[in-house]
Task: structure prediction
Amino acid sequence: MEEVKAIAQNHVSNVIEILENPTFEENNGIESAKGLYVNMLSFGNLIYMPSYGESDDEKYNIDLLSKYGKVYPIACDELAVFGGLLHCISFTN
Result:
């Protein structure tokens, strides 16, 4: 992970590290996305971040991302079992 981060920092002006806490659950052969936070949506200064209830990782990510805009946690427990989250269902880049 450190090597990937170093490569990214050589090509992107600001790299931030989002904390993740995957559950490694599986449902009908599909790996759950529960515990992943990087699969978010951002529109200008609005950031919609997956939420799984309050945790230290989630609080850290909200504080970190608040520097870049208004963070709106969206409950994603039910969506995560399908293997994707907010960015996946939006079809945006």
About this structure: Residues 20-90 form one domain. The chain has a mean pLDDT of 91. The CA atoms of residues 54 and 73 lie 10 Å apart. The chain has one domain: 20-90.
